[in-house]
Specification:
By secondary structure, this protein is an alpha/beta fold. It has one domain: Class I glutamine amidotransferase (GATase) domain (Rossmann fold, 3-Layer(aba) Sandwich). 30% of the residues lie in helices and 24% in strands. Strands 1, 2, 3, 4, 5, 6, 7, 8, 9, 10, 11 and 12 form a twelve-stranded mixed beta sheet that branches. Helix 1 crosses helix 3.
């Protein structure tokens, strides 16, 4: 089944060239089916690339998904054309009276700052609080996972000795949980961050469970026991070139940075990277949509949510 997006969203042409079924608004309205309403709060600087990454990951399911894009109203993005934001994005004031089946909150390059010092922290906190009553399940990515754990459970992040960047081996810890259904016992996933969360801090919280971890990258998948929140400390949605682009960007900035580990063939930065995590990414998002959104959400979105 397709993913429903605006007719002229830039990601549309890219996805169609990859033979991904996307549906125009004019066709979707003729189908007698209620699509899942997914809100994406995009905090990444390069919003168009992030949109494409996430839409690609959400597309590989038999469910029809209708996506709305959310931007900060208290902070103006400097890396995305204003006309794109005006055409395709909404602010919280425009959506806060509505309910959604799912909410995705992306990462952001602000992880070395204290949460309270981030320009849009108050707005993000308001949205996370709002999600308790207006969203069936919230999916937090990378920095957003750290922010969500801090806001909801008081679990703080800590600074790493150096940037964690690369493709890391992970193992499943709770194979009975539907989110990891179908995962290999060992799977690969990308990480790109300067901060982390401590496993022992999560284990002290009775409301959380760890589903997957890496010996090198640490805790990867966390779920709240009430199944309303999922936290992913990596970037399964990244495409094959994303870490390469980030590495080249950091080099141009003059940063002393090592190449992403387990990424470039033969660790040669002149060689084209290969995606070794694509199947995991599709499975992660399809499991989320199926088991934690579609099978958990009310048919009538106006039904009062849990607090």
């Amino acid at each position: 089944m397709p993913i429903k997006i605006p007719d002229n969203l830039p990601a549309r042409e890219i996805l169609e060239s990859e033979n991904i079924f996307v549906m125009a608004d004019r066709r979707a309205v003729r189908q007698d089916i209620r699509p899942l309403k997914i809100l994406i709060f995009n905090l990444m600087p390069l919003k168009i690339k992030t949109e494409t990454h996430l839409l690609r990951s959400l597309s590989n399911t038999p469910l029809q998904v209708e996506v709305e894009l959310l931007m900060t109203g208290t902070y103006t993005s400097k890396n995305t054309p204003k006309e794109h934001l005006v055409s395709f994005y909404k602010t919280f004031d425009e959506v806060k009276e509505h309910n959604y089946d799912g909410l995705i909150i992306t990462g952001a390059p602000v992880e070395l700052m204290k949460f309270e010092d981030v320009a849009y922290w108050k707005e993000l906190s308001e949205i996370m609080e709002w999600s308790k009553e207006h969203v069936t399940n919230t999916f937090h990515i990378c920095w957003a996972a750290q922010a969500g754990l801090y806001y909801h459970y008081g679990i703080d992040k800590y600074e790493l000795d150096k940037k964690l960047s690369g493709i890391y081996r992970h193992k499943v810890l709770k194979s009975e949980e539907p989110l990891v259904r179908g995962f290999d016992d060992v799977f690969m996933a990308p990480h790109s961050r300067y901060t982390g969360i401590r496993k022992e801090d999560i284990e002290k919280c009775d409301e959380l469970e760890i589903l997957a971890e890496s010996d090198e990258a640490g805790v990867y998948l966390i779920i709240s026991k009430d199944k309303s929140r999922i936290f992913v400390t990596g970037h399964s949605e990244y495409d094959a070139n994303t870490l390469k682009e980030e590495y080249e960007r950091d080099i141009k900035k003059g940063l002393e940075i090592e190449p992403p580990v387990n990424y470039f063939p033969d660790n040669d930065t002149s060689k084209q990277p290969l995606s070794t995590w694509r199947s995991h990414a599709h499975l992660l998002y399809s499991n989320w949509l199926n088991y934690y959104v579609y099978q958990a959400t009310p048919y009538d979105l106006n039904v009062k949510r849990r607090k």
